[in-house]
Amino acid sequence: MHPSARQYRPDPPAAWAGGLLTIDLGAVAANYRLLHDRVGPGTTCAAAVKADAYGLGADRIVPVLAAAGCRVFFVAHLAEGAAIRPLLGADSTIFVLNGAMPGTEADLHGLGLAPVLNSMDQIARWQELARRLDTPLPAALQVDSGMSRFGLSDGDVDMLMARAAPLAGIVPLLVMSHLACADDPAHPANLAQRTAFLRLRARLPRAPASLAASSGLFLGPDWRFDMVRPGAALYGINPTPGHPNPMRPVVRLQARVVQTRWIGPGTAVGYGAAFIADRPSHVATLAVGYGDGFPRVLGGRGIAILPGRPEVKLPVIGRISMDCLAVDVTDLGDGPLDAGTALDLIGPHNPLDTVAAAAGTIGYELLTGLGARYHRAHVTDDAVIDDMQKGSSA
Ligand SMILES: *Cc1c(COP(=O)(O)O)cnc(C)c1O
């Protein structure tokens, strides 16, 4: 048994849950293959599975990616790497993007993880461990090509390469950097970062190179180098904003009706009386709120969809509460909306990126913020494969 995020998730049975989160593992695999095929055989397609695979459950996503052929994984934290290491074979590499916090180098190495070395300090501490163990240790080297977040600056590279044996004790598996503006192909920072990356890379010992994540790999072949590191696109987020999404949607979020009521004109709904009905209205209270990571800012802006009635956009009215939200279902007609009915908050007719944009954020934040109270069903090719396996691994 390995520690995983799942163990501290309540993740109730479907019948108990107010919200249902359906994660299409078949779509994740198809998205991986699409990206893999797009970059072609000369470029390794890795996968970013940090933050519990963008909130979708690394314990379920990682084996699917491995089965699809992925052998290189990126997490942010040591603990995330430790959680997925037992899911992967010895032929897989797990890079820890943040590197090792001081004093955790031996743990990181002992767990079979490779740090991304972002600073002179991280390099020194990794070399120190290699000296102690008397063996060279694998790592990626990050250079700062213009994002000013992680990686060696030009000055750092000067200092490093002035040494007699700059990378003594290090097996450099990768030289990498990260693009700040890849979702905007016209942004001049892209070319500037590529130029800086080429310059810095040329000054370091030869190693495979990686610059692009999801959006970067869609900038074209010049951006792909030896390895690409998509995350978001695997999970259905559009890597080409402003253009049709080439990826398959992965996530469906549904909220259950708790009760419905008819209210007259002038009647208020929710905290702050922020919504006042201007007509006789049929209002449904759904069992998902901001405590489930559904953004409070979507009060008055979000929509719900009744499956089978996609032409009727049901507006989220009033303020979103911690545990519930209200939807105006009047336009569905007088038909009953039974308690327990599941309405889509993210689905085929209200896609993730659109919902995120309405909330003033991005799909990344919405996904990673999804809460612990949903019933999570991992499906593949529309067959629910999940509950049985979940039961046996509990
Ligand atoms: C998160 C991250 C990725 C993946 O980015 P996406 O935009 O989700 O594809 C790749 N590389 C680094 C360094 C990252 O931090």
CATH topology of the largest domain: TIM Barrel
Unreliable spans: 1-5, 382-394
Helix tally equals 12
Tell me, briefly, the overall form.
elongated
Compounds present? Answer: pyridoxal-5'-phosphate
Share of helix, binned: 25-40%
Mean pLDDT: 94
Summarize the main sheet.
9 strands, mixed
The CATH homologous superfamily name of the largest domain equals Alanine racemase
What would you call the structural class? Answer: alpha/beta
The fraction of residues in strands falls at 15-25%
Description:
This protein is α/β, with parallel strands linked by helices and 394 residues long. The chain has 2 domains: 25-235, TIM Barrel; 251-372, Beta Barrel (Lyase, Ornithine Decarboxylase, Chain A, domain 1). It is built from 12 helices and 20 strands. The strands form 4 sheets. Strands 1, 11, 14, 15, 16, 17, 18, 19 and 20 form a 9-stranded mixed beta sheet that branches. A hairpin with a 7-residue loop joins strand 16 (314-317) and strand 17. Helix 1 (25-39) packs across helix 3 and helix 10 crosses helix 11. The longest helix has 16 residues, at 188-203. It starts with 18 loop residues before the first strand and ends with a helix. Mean pLDDT is 94; it is low at 1-5 and 382-394. Pyridoxal-5'-phosphate (PLP) binds next to loops. Pyridoxal-5'-phosphate binds next to loops.
